[in-house]
Amino acid sequence: MVTTKSLIVAYGLALLPVLVSSSPIVPRYFQRNLFSRDNITASTVKTELGQQLSKGSLIFGPDSALYPNATERWNTRITPNAQVVVQPAAESDLAQIVKYCNDNSFEFLVRNRGHGTTDSLSTFSGIEIDVEMLTGVTIQPDKKIATLQAGTFIGDVINKLWDQGFVATTGSAACVGLMGAALGGGHGRYEGLYGLVQDNIVHYNAVLANGTEIGVNETSHPDLLYALKGAGHNFAIVTSVVEKIYPRENWYQKTYTWTQDKLETVFEALNTFHKSANGTTPARMGVSYGSIIMNTSISTTEAVLEWGFDYAGPAADAEKLLGPFNAIKAIQVGSKRTLYNLFNKKIAEYPELAPSAYLWHEGYATAGMQAIPSDSTAYPHREENHLM
Ligand SMILES: Cc1cc2nc3c(=O)[nH]c(=O)nc-3n(C[C@H](O)[C@H](O)[C@H](O)COP(=O)(O)OP(=O)(O)OC[C@H]3O[C@@H](n4cnc5c(N)ncnc54)[C@H](O)[C@@H]3O)c2cc1C
Ligand SMILES: *[C@@H]1O[C@H](CO)[C@@H](O)[C@H](O)[C@H]1NC(C)=O
Ligand SMILES: *[C@@H]1O[C@H](CO)[C@@H](O)[C@H](O)[C@H]1NC(C)=O
Ligand SMILES: *[C@@H]1O[C@H](CO)[C@@H](O)[C@H](O)[C@H]1NC(C)=O
Ligand SMILES: *[C@@H]1O[C@H](CO)[C@@H](O)[C@H](O)[C@H]1NC(C)=O
Ligand SMILES: *[C@@H]1O[C@H](CO)[C@@H](O)[C@H](O)[C@H]1NC(C)=O
Ligand SMILES: *[C@@H]1O[C@H](CO)[C@@H](O)[C@H](O)[C@H]1NC(C)=O
């Protein structure tokens, strides 16, 4: 009997005799276009890969009750096609899965919390590696670093560290994957004090495209360290990281609701607050954030401004800095109205959108981030002061 694989080899030899005969060491993952297998099914993958994975790992397809959660996306317009889902129970499984996919010319894509919004995700079809079981958050004995596994997410890491008396740069939105954020930089409330998430990672455990496991740090693969810090999703699957942690401290939070007539004044105060000295937002003023939102107990036609400030320190220190916002009274008209007016107009046009908010401004402190030389990592936005 002629097996699929021997046919493949025969075709490869026939089409590319020079390449194949003179370069027997061309890695399999560069040969993927030489052949393709029939459509992947969960039962095939279970039979072929299942035994190699650690106990507790799961392999399933679209007919499984587990499939909807394992493939859910924050943005439903992003539609990777997960023909089969593999959930590894141990970090070491990731290398096995990658080798298996390479050997069989199956595309693979890591998924953690499904918040990625790059269009290219929608072109994927193959084996999804869902890392949600890898949830370890382990504070090391020196209490200066913690090991965080690939399946951790921001809210989970914040809570687990906080409960033990620590904080770390994690990113802000609780629902987002820690690694997804960290591999692209990672913005959050400790940016002013400690920098980006990536700036606090001292070691990455990673699996390369050929399934080889490596450790990446200043003395081991430093070129890859540069790339993982800012362009990381393209260079490896990270199975865990070692990140610096810091003693926790209390936060002071203050929120304001302003009616629309204060709009220009609020933005002038924000400009002074964040930008007058070019990005020297007080390092402890971790974030200011604002949205426009319809609050029907105030008005059904004019959205209000909801603003918040989070300060890492005592209320009295924060209040000194918040003086200009406490004092806002003036009524002014200017050119910053366009977006605000558009929001009201759209709510009037589509009343079903009334419960929505337009997140307008996220101003993190930047001192810690900008203390790191821009050319030391692949992250390209260090000079930028704001996310608008
Ligand atoms: C509502 C919302 C809030 C956000 N808030 C913040 C924030 O506060 N701070 C911030 O910095 N960013 C924030 N982001 C951006 C967010 O960091 C990125 O979208 C991130 O890539 C999402 O990661 P995920 O695990 O949730 O998504 P996924 O779609 O599961 O993963 C995103 C990408 O990362 C890859 N990937 C995931 N894990 C690994 C791994 N271990 N190794 C290699 N590649 C991997 C995936 O293959 C995919 O391409 C936010 C995004 C949204 C939608
Ligand atoms: C493989 O899947 C594609 C789309 O997912 C489908 O169009 C095609 O018919 C399938 N082929 C086989 C042999 O099942
Ligand atoms: C899917 O996720 C939801 C929300 O976290 C949970 O309540 C539900 O039990 C999950 N479903 C399955 C089949 O695991
Ligand atoms: C995998 O790739 C790395 C980086 O190119 C290389 O050093 C290593 O030898 C490769 N491993 C195998 C088994 O081919
Ligand atoms: C750097 O990585 C190598 C390879 O994993 C490891 O042996 C070494 O201990 C790491 N160094 C630090 C400082 O983490
Ligand atoms: C801020 O930076 C810009 C551009 O680099 C410069 O022109 C301006 O003078 C700076 N302003 C202050 C207050 O430092
Ligand atoms: C709307 O405004 C009222 C009065 O200020 C306030 O109590 C309430 O919390 C606001 N609702 C929302 C959803 O912000």
TrEMBL record:
Annotated family: Belongs to the oxygen-dependent FAD-linked oxidoreductase family.
Gene3D superfamilies membership: 3.30.465.10
Domain FAD-binding PCMH-type residues, every copy: 78-248
An annotated Gene Ontology molecular function: FAD binding
Descriptive protein name: FAD-binding PCMH-type domain-containing protein
Keywords: FAD, Flavoprotein, Oxidoreductase, Signal
Annotated Pfam families: FAD_binding_4 (PF01565)
Organism for this UniProt entry: Lepraria neglecta
Superkingdom to which the source organism belongs: Eukaryota
Signal peptide annotation: 1-22
